[in-house]
Amino acid sequence: MRFVAAAFAAALAAQKAAAFSNVYSGRRFSTSIKMAEKTALSQDELKKMVGYKAVDDYVKSGMVVGLGTGSTAYFAVERLGQLLASGELKDIVAIPTSVRTKEQAESLKIPLVTLDTHSKLDVAIDGADEVDPDLNLVKGGGGALLREKMVEVCAEKFIVIVDESKLCDGLGPGFPLPVEITPFCHEHTLRTIAALPSCAGCDAVLRMGSSSSNKPDGDEIAITDNGNYIVDLHFTEAIKDAPKMAMELKNTVGVVDHGLFCGMTTAVIIAGSDGISVKEA
To answer: 112-138: b or e for each residue (b if 16 or more CB lie within 10 Å)?
Structure first.
């Protein structure tokens, strides 16, 4: 049995772990899992469930795997390390999307490569900050949006792992859209972005402090792993045409890339109060 209830026993001891133990069956999950007695799970426990399921269901020996960045992707990386250590997966190489994911993978002895030597991936697994009904995404809250997109666009399958709080009717109001820009004349680029027709009404804010948080936590400008800055676009209304906005942003001189991931998703694995569901593109 590749994923047993014992993995969660400590976390769920106070939350009816015995009822929860029947949710799992070997390495695979069913498409929709109803939790026994609707056991209340923390957000981290939900993230762990989808992270583990993504690896269990989509990663096979011999694959090239893209490793996402963030609190949910962390658990997918953890699971991959477990299965390699146990010998249940073999001949895996992985491409991390950030320095911190690289460090986690190295600590788990996951063999790493880069796009320079492996431009085609079998699968990439990552979280998202928002997911709309068309499976378009907002990503980059953790500041790794450029490397995430570079890796995930090269994957045959892109598996998104979220808890149900990330689902929305329209992108924008629930989470600021990050845009990575060059430091050169960054104030000019910020103003240019805010003036784009598709971005009308947004509040463009330069990210300060740590690049891994869109909440200001320092007095210095946040710097990404690539040496760039991030502008967070705050919207009060849903983005009307995400693909159009993605194109306008990408065509803006000074913009390196943006956190709109449109038309890239293969499937979204969603953890909610009633269990796990999978939505495919």
So the answer is: eeeeeebeebbbbbbbbbbbbeebbbb
